[in-house]
Amino acid sequence: MRKTTYGAMLVTVPISACVGEGDAVPPPQASPPQPLVAAGPPSAEPLPPLPAPEPPKPPLIDLQKQAVAARGAAMNAHDARKFSELYALDATVDEYGLGEAKGREAIAGGLQKAFDGFPDFKIGVSKVFVKNDVLAQEWVITGTHAGEFNGAKPTNKTIGVRVASVLTFTPEGLIKTERRYWDTSTLLSQLGLMTAPARPVAARPSGEPEWYVAKGTPEEDKLVEVAKAIGGAFERKAEAEFLSALSENVSWSNVIQPKDIRGKASAKQFFGMFTAAFPDAKFSSDALFGVDDVVVSESSMTATHAGPLGPLKPTKKPVTMHGLDIMVVKDGKLASGSTYSNSLELLGQEGPLPKPKAAEAEGDNKAAARKETKPASDKK
Prior knowledge:
Blueprint: H1 2-18, H2 60-76, H3 80-84, E1 87-95, E2 99-102, H4 104-117, E3 122-131, E4 134-144, E5 158-169, E6 175-181, H5 184-190, E7 210-213, H6 218-236, H7 239-244, E8 246-254, E9 261-262, H8 263-277, E10 282-291, E11 294-304, E12 318-330, E13 333-340, H9 343-350, H10 357-372
C-alpha cells in the first residue's frame, strides 16, 4: 500500500506545483489538423458517363400522320426510293389481281413504272380512318399516259382512278403491310384500251385529308353490327334483312361498276343480281372497326360464279375476291358508302384475260409483217 501511494504522489506533484488552488485545469488541446494531401491517380479506369435518356417515343397516331403526309409528298415528287423507305425492310404491298411486291426495292420499282408511264402522276388523299396500328385511306390517282406503261404504248389520255389502301404499322411508324384496292378495268377503259363501260375520270382531292381516329366507344362498336348484318344477309340471301339495314335514300358507289346505287329499289336489284351470281358466297373479315359514324370493313369472299354478273356469263368456277367497304351509318342504318376492289382479280380466275386493244393491233401488225417477209418459196 505504501509503495502504491507514494507512486501516485510522484505523478501528481508536477501538476499541483503548476496550478494554484482554485485554478481551473485547462482543457486538453486538440491535435492540429492533418494537411490535405492530393489524391493520387485512381488505380482503375474511370466509369463512362451515363447515356442520356432517350426522348419519349411519339404516339403512334402522330407517326401515322407523318407517314401519310410523307407518302403523298414522295409520290407527288416522283421519288420512289423515298417512298419505299417509309416501309419496313420486309414489308409487302398487295394489289389484288396484279400481284405482290415484297421489300423496299420491289415496292420502289412498281411505283417507278407508274411515274414512267404517267410523267405528271399525282395523288390526293381525301379521308383517313385509324384504329390502333390499322389505317385505311381513300385517295385518287391522276395523270396523262405519255409514256409506256406495262407494255401499253402512250395514248396521251388522262386518268383519274379512285384507290383505297389498308396499312398496318410497326411501333416505330414504318408501314408493315399495304393492301391496295383499285380497278384495272377502269384505268384501261379511261385509256381507250378496253371497251367495257367504266367510271368517268375522278377528280384529285386537294388540301389536307379528313382524319377519323377510333375512340373505342360502345357506340363505335355498335356500328360494326350493321356491317355484320349486311354481310350475313348476303350469305343467307335474305333480301328483307338486307333492305331493313338500309336508309330509304341509301347511296352506294362501287368502283368496278359504272353507276352508283341510289335508293332501296336500286339496292334491291343489285342484291338479286349478286346473290344469283354467287349463291354460296361466304365472307371473312380482314379488318373491321367503327370510327365516329363510319365502318371500315375489309373482307374476302369465296364463292362459285353460278349466275350472270352484269355482262359476265357464269363460269361455274370457284373464285375469291377481296374488297374494302367504307360505310356511313346514320340512326343505325346504312346511309352511304363505297366499295373498292379490282375486277381483274375476278377476271383472272374466270379464264384468259382479253388483250388490250393496242396490244391486239400491235400483234396483228407483226403477224402481217412476218407474212410479207416470208420467202417466196414458202408462199402458197
